[in-house]
Amino acid sequence: MAIPKIQNYELPFKQDYPIAKVNWKIEKNRAALLIHDMQEYFIHFYGDNSPLMQKIIENIAQIKAWCIAQNIPVFYTAQPATQQDQDRALLNDMWGPGLTAYPEQAKIVHQLAPNEQDHLLTKWRYSAFYRSDLQKILSETQKDQLIICGIYAHIGVLQTAAEAFMNGIQPFVVGDSVADFSLEDHLFALRYVQRNLGVVEDAQHVMTSSI
Question: Taking the complete model, does pTM exceed 0.90, yes or no?
Answer without folding.
Answer: yes
